[in-house]
Amino acid sequence: MQTVLSGIRPTGNLHLGNYFGAVRSFVEMQNNYNSYFFIADWHSLTTHPTPEDIRRSARTILAEYLACGIDPEKATIYIQSDVPEVLELYLYLNMNAYLGELERVTSFKEKVRKQPDNVNAGLLTYPTLMAADILIHKADKVPVGKDQEQNMEMARLFARRFNRIYNVEFFKEPESFHFSEKAVKVPGLDGSGKMGKSEGNAIYLKDDEATIKKKVMKAVTDAGPTEPNQEKPEPIANLFTMLEIVSSRETYDFFNEQYNTCQVRYGDLKKQLAADINTFCAPIRERINEYLSNTELLDRIARQGAEKAREHAAATLREVRQIIGFHA
Ligand code: ADP
Ligand code: TRP
């Protein structure tokens, strides 16, 4: 069976965009792959979070993933900093990673431009840590967005280079895996573009009913169609895309028909949309809160995941040490 590995930086709560764009596909994948899901808390150190931030964010994101249906019985779900084996591989990979190529990584150059007073070595070697995450489990497939493509290329480069230097066929080159055919792009409701944390327009899975309603009622609309079957401008098309994602076929068809006959009432549409988003989010929200109030269970899941991940990582590392010439 092929191995799939997915990593996420614990930078905030999951929103509908994350869910329909990525998480839903992970949840399906755990049935067909040997799956690893981990929370990349070491990677988040490049921005110097406080100990409080770190403690809170890893647990929160763990609770949210579990609430979405990632199943610790099927997948190995762990927190990166619970698996120190990764760091030893990171060190070995760093010895064969060159300053020039690391400096050429676009996301590094961007950080240098954006935060010139915090260009730390962790930022420079972000791609080697990511490669270590992937190679320690010899992952075949890594689901990532376009922005991670260069990091994936570096991971493949480091795998090939290790094999060449030691004249072995040890690491396989991990493949980037795109959900694009299956995953949807969830729009924002503020007129244009996608839903995103940094766009400030996200509806979070943990949002309560009143918050969801407030956010949806604020959605940008226009004066309404003036001709039958008129093409929908972006803000309106976005509302309909949301209906398509969370509401029933009948609801979508009803409002679509109303739009096409110039009778649509955006207030009613938004009320229905808010109700349907709430119906979708409510059980997830309930599970998030259950997990968050049960730190013992969360800790147990994290510990069990870490144990499984460490066992597998240690096996890889023993071989790596042997190949390099150290005691296994
Ligand atoms: P954000 O932009 O909100 O910070 P991330 O960039 O951390 O989200 O993305 C995490 C995952 O969620 C990625 O796989 C990304 O492709 C997916 N994702 C984020 N926003 C959307 C969206 N609006 N539609 C579809 N997928 C999304
Ligand atoms: N760099 C990824 C991101 O910013 C997170 C990440 C860290 C990751 N290590 C990984 C993703 C290993 C996949 C595999 O989203």
What is the N-to-C succession of helices and strands?
EHEHEHHHHHEHEHHHHH
Q: How many DSSP H or I helices?
A: 13
Number of domains: 2
What would you report as the Rg, rounded to the nearest angstrom?
22 Å
Mean pLDDT: 95
What is the count of β-strands? Answer: 5
Strand content: 5-15%
Spatial order of strands in the largest sheet: 1-2-3
The CATH homologous superfamily of the largest domain is named HUPs
CATH level-3 fold name of the largest domain: Rossmann fold
Secondary structure: elements and pairs:
Blueprint: E1 3-8, H1 16-29, E2 34-39, H2 51-68, E3 76-79, H3 85-95, H4 99-103, H5 106-114, H6 121-124, H7 126-135, E4 141-143, H8 149-166, E5 175-177, H9 209-217, H10 234-246, H11 249-260, H12 266-292, H13 295-324
Helix pairs in contact: 2-12, 3-7, 3-13, 7-8, 9-12, 10-12
The structure holds adenosine-5'-diphosphate and tryptophan.
Verbal overview:
The chain is mostly helical and 328 residues long. The chain has two domains: 3-184 and 295-324, Rossmann fold; 209-289, Orthogonal Bundle (Tyrosyl-Transfer RNA Synthetase), CATH 1.10.240. 55% of the residues lie in helices and 7% in strands. It has a three-stranded parallel β-sheet with strand order 1-2-3. Strands 4-5 form a two-stranded parallel sheet. Helix 2 (51-68) crosses helix 12, helix 3 (85-95) packs across helix 7 and helix 9 (209-217) packs antiparallel against helix 12. Adenosine-5'-diphosphate (ADP) binds at residues 17-18, 21-22, 145, 185-186, 194-198. Adenosine-5'-diphosphate (ADP) binds next to helix 1.
